[in-house]
Amino acid sequence: MAELGGYLYTTRQGDMWDYIAHQVYGDEYQVGVLLSANQELLGTYIFSAGCQVWCPVVETVDEEDENIPSWRDEEDVDEEEVDDGFDEEEGDEDEEEFADY
């Protein structure tokens, strides 16, 4: 009986856990999800061709969204200019001063 909420990944010769996690989830740090779901394969480090690895669905959280306070509008964050304390006009003058030496 197949588990709900995922799919089987068929390995190719030389696949490793981190490679499979990257292929399936786009993040090699999701290896733990695969290892937990495939206890019977824990002794395998480099797969031969044709092994079936169960890949459960995982909920991803966008790190950028995680850092935005709930009271901030996402649009405000995208449009906000960052003041780096450097005035372009002043920077040009400084460059000219140094060029004279």
Description:
- The protein has helices at 17-25, 31-37, 63-66, 74-79, 88-99, and strands at 6-10, 52-56.
- It has 101 residues and is an alpha+beta fold.
- A two-stranded antiparallel sheet has the order 1-2.
- Helix 1 (17-25) crosses helix 2.
- The radius of gyration is 25 Å and the shape is elongated.
| SS strand fraction | 5-15%
| N/C terminus separation | 79 Å
Give the tally of structural domains.
Answer: 1
**Helix/sheet category:** alpha+beta
Helix and strand pattern = EHHEHHH
- Give the overall form: elongated
Main sheet? Answer: 2 strands, antiparallel
Q: In DSSP terms, counting alpha (H) and pi (I) runs of 4 or more, how many helices?
A: 5
Mean pLDDT: 79
Total strands: 2
Low-confidence stretches: none
Q: What is the rounded Rg?
A: 25 Å
Spatial ordering of strands, largest sheet:
1-2
Brief rundown of the structure:
With 101 residues, the chain is of the alpha+beta class. It is built from five helices and two strands. 7% of the residues are buried.
Topology (elements, then pairings):
Elements: E1 6-10, H1 17-25, H2 31-37, E2 52-56, H3 63-66, H4 74-79, H5 88-99
Antiparallel strand pairs: 1-2
Helix pairs in contact: 1-2
Distinctive features:
elongated, 10% strand, 2 strands, two-stranded antiparallel sheet, 101 residues, alpha+beta
